[in-house]
Amino acid sequence: MKDIREDIAWAKINTDVLKSLESPRKLFWVIIISALTVFGIGVACELYQYNMGLGVANLDNPHVWGLYIATFIFWIGMSHSGTLLSAILHLMHADWRKPIYRFAEAMTTFSLMTAGLFVMVHLGRLWQFYYAVPYPNERWIWPNFQSPLLWDAMAIFTYLSSSILFLYVGMIPDLAICRDNIHTGWRKKLYTLLSLGWEGTDRQWRNFRVTYLTIACFLIPLAVSVHSIVASDFAMSQQPGWHVTSFPPYFVAGALYSGCAAIITLFIILRYVFKFEEYMTLAILKKVVRLTFAIAMVWTYLNLIEYATVWYSHDEVSKAVLIQKATGTYAPFWWMMNFCGSIVPLIMAFKRFQTNIPVMMVVSLLLNMGMWLERWMIVSPTFSHGYYPWTWDHDQWPSWVQWGVVFGSFGWFTFLFMVFCKIFPSVSMYEVKEMVYHRSLASKKLEVAGMQESGKGAH
Amino acid sequence: MSKRHLLAIFSNFHEAEAAVKELRNSSIKGFDANQDLIVKSPIEHPEVEEFLGNKPVYVQWFTLCGALTGGLLAFFLISGSQANFFDQVKGGKPVVPFPPNFVLTYEMFILGGVYISILGFLICAGLPARRSPLYSSKVSEDQIGILVKTDEESAGVLKGIFTKHEALEIQEEAGK
Among residues B138, B142, B144, which one has the least CA distance to residue B167? Predict the structure, then answer.
């Protein structure tokens, strides 16, 4: 099974991808309307909370963080997939990533934008966000630069802006194709503006290659640092269950895991909605599934390490939190998290399921549910079983306002992502051409070598 | 001497490569292959560098400067703000603590590196640019273009070379 047909004409690649900008299947509009509806619910909940205060979200002492921060970590995690596919696999010359890395990069950008919203939503008073901005108040007191919360703000800003630039730079040659082929309307103006007059000259390509590689090299440590810093929000506190050395790598593995699972979901959706069956092939799906399986096993290992560290640490309070997770109010969710995160991915080990689209769709959704539950199970149980005994009878069930905002974020992300795929090429045309060109060259070389070999045999 | 621009379109890379090699090897009056020849292609061909000769790329110098500036800026901004506490009691803790400051220095190192790399890319690649008058949208599809600038009187020689290597189309325009 080949990743892509090698005899596919370059002109056809342009036509197919450009067609996706104009005539997607009807499901596209169903998704857009559903996303807007869900997003509308989220906005209504946020407006209500803004007017009434955080109490309506059921956030109070000791539960100062709830679903908002759990979902914030979830969205930050989702963003890692784009970096994995575009930067890490780019450096490893894994060319099968080429038809799918563009939408993964877009996913990175929009999930970071969604995550950023939660930082503000959980403050209640949105305007207080300025405390995380590095400028002094009227008494010349600066923000605390030693706080991981401030590191978070800076890291997310750096990651978001760098991801947007990386996505944009990688798209310039494709924007020029759009400019050359779409002749009227606002799109023509937009593509002309954004393509910056790109003509594919040798000078442009030469500088493009170096720039793309350079930013890819920056993005990899940046992605790791961002989620390590998010992990530090927890690990640098003294709360039981959070003060764990392995938290940063555990968070990074979880991030890559949920990101890969999301790539499978969006791969299947885009393949159908935009008729990309020839580019988002089952062979590529198989590779993504295998990658996800490998990362799932890494996450499972780190998860077990975390349990073992707590269990054998003789830290009775942390141990009590772990026991409470497994047997207390949150037990169904904790067991569900372990099931979805460690047992469900085992399906991916079977070859026959790796290219089975309905099965993979369900599996990827379950994996992401597991990863979302993981974040919730990190945040909430610790608050209801902290060092102070008065917290022990304070289990918190999030109010409908919190749930509404969380669901709304999925609508917001889906809306942004689908609009992006409708306006910009979600398959990189020039890179697919490169993939086809190099693979057909390699095949021809193999054929010639084979003929020479058989010629020698005849003599 | 008035100049003339020619754009020859080729259906495949090998014909374009052969044409470029011949242009580089022949001495044509008013035409310098190092200055007056541009290859346009729909994909990045690393082979282009082999037959056009190695041309330097300076983006990485922008990257270095950007990253160092970003890192230093962050470190001195943070340390400067912490130095504000010199006249306040810090309980024996360092006024400028290096380990936590390293985190933001690192983030700004990357931020500066990325931003200035993009700036360097735009400068080095000559972007944004006006569309050249000789442009074929076929170049962004599946064909290779060779754009040359030469003296009016040598244009015929160049056209002959392009035709010999089976150029699909030759566009021409008087230039400066």
Answer: B144
**Residue A417's domain spans which residues?**
25-424
A205 contacts B41? CB cut-off 8 A: yes
DSSP E strand boundaries for A99-191: none
| Contact (CB<8Å) B104/A215 | no
- Domain membership of residue A437 (yes or no) is no
State how far the Cα of B165 lies from the Cα of B167, in Å rounded to an integer: 6
Contact state of A214 with B118 under an 8 Å Cβ cutoff? no
User: Does B113 reach chain A within 8 Å, measured CB to CB?
Assistant: yes
Contacts of B48 in chain A (CB under 8 A): 202, 205
Which residue on chain A is closest to B134 by alpha carbon? A199
- Model ipTM? 0.91
Bridge partners of B150? B4
**Residues in chain B within 8 Å Cβ distance of A205:** 41, 44-45, 48
What domains lie within chain B, and their CATH numbers?
A: 3-56+133-174 (3.30.70.260), 60-124 (no CATH)
Q: What is the pTM of this model?
A: 0.92
Note down pLDDT in tens along chain A; length 459 residues.
788 888 888 899 999 999 988 888 899 999 999 999 999 999 999 999 999 988 899 888 888 888 999 999 999 998 887 777 778 888 888 888 888 989 999 999 999 999 999 988 988 888 888 877 878 878 777 888 888 888 988 999 999 999 999 999 999 999 999 999 887 889 999 999 999 999 989 899 999 999 999 999 999 999 999 989 999 989 988 888 888 888 899 999 999 999 999 999 999 999 999 999 999 999 999 999 999 999 999 999 999 998 998 888 888 889 999 999 999 889 999 999 999 999 999 999 999 999 999 999 999 999 999 999 999 999 988 888 888 888 887 777 889 999 999 999 999 999 999 999 999 999 999 999 989 888 888 888 888 887 777 765 444
Collect all residues with Cβ–Cβ distance below 8 Å to B84 and sequence separation of at least 6: A136, A140, A141, A142
Contact A14 B141 (CB under 8 A): yes
Nearest-CA distance from A255 to chain B in Å? 19
CATH code where residue A309 lies: 1.20.1630.10
Chain B nearest C-alpha distance from A403 (Å): 33
Dist CA A354 CA A264 (whole Å): 11
Are A381 and A325 spatial neighbours (Cβ–Cβ below 8 Å)?
yes
- A50 in any annotated domain: yes
Q: Which residues of B touch A166 (CB under 8 A)?
A: 114
Domain membership of residue A270 (yes or no) is: yes
* Chain A CB contacts of B44 below 8 Å: 205, 208-209, 430, 434
Query: How many structural domains is chain A composed of?
Result: 1
Any domain includes A150? yes
- 3-class SS string, A340-367: HHHHHHHHHHCHHHHCCHHHHHHHHHHH
